[in-house]
Amino acid sequence: MRVNGEWLNCEGGVVRPVVPGLAQVIGGQWIEVTFLLDAGADRTVFSADFLALLQPLEILGTSQTRLAGVGGQVNSIFVETTIGFIRDDRQLVRVRGSFGVFTEGESAELSVLGRDVTDNFSVIYDYPNQAVALLSPPHYYEIKNPS
After folding, report:
1. By the number of CB atoms within 10 A of the CB, which of 8, 18, 49, 141 ranks highest?
2. How confident is the model over 6-55, as pLDDT tens digits?
3. Which of 24, 22, 92 is nearest to 53 (CA)?
4. Is the pLDDT score of 105 beyond 70?
């Protein structure tokens, strides 16, 4: 299985690896989400842009949770939902779980795909060859020493 991503030109000329995804909201509807691949993120967290859409889902816990990262601590809530990715054969692969949602708009401009999801895949961040991909069998990668 292969999910293709891309290198996205962001604000300030920064180029970041992203993967297109979907998030399931109330009523089973799917909404599009661009996920920043972050090898240092423990958890997947949706940007505050999705708060109004995801907050009607079952909120886990009774209060906001503080998440910490390079930028400091920020407030979030956690919801139970399903994330989807379109494979290279156009089929939908789903990952169900508890995911964070930033509650403050300045927390992150993109939703973050953390290791709680990416640990299910081999993750390729290959800037020189302009490749971004999530892989699982039958797809694989091989590192070769040029002869």
Report:
1. 18
2. 999 998 899 999 999 999 998 899 999 999 999 989 899 999 888 888 87
3. 24
4. no
Contact 101, 81 (CB under 8 A): no
Distance CA 55, CA 53 (A): 6
Amino acid at 5: G
pTM: 0.86
Number of residues written out for the chain: 147
Residues 6+ apart with CB under 8 A from 132: 4, 5, 6, 7, 17, 18, 19, 37, 124, 125, 126
Which among 49, 61, 60 is positioned nearest to 23, based on CA atoms?
Answer: 49
Give the Cα separation of 68 and 100 in Å (integer): 12
Domains and CATH numbers, the chain: 2-135 (2.40.70.10)
Distance CA 122, CA 35 (A): 16
The pLDDT, as a whole number, for residue 68 is 46
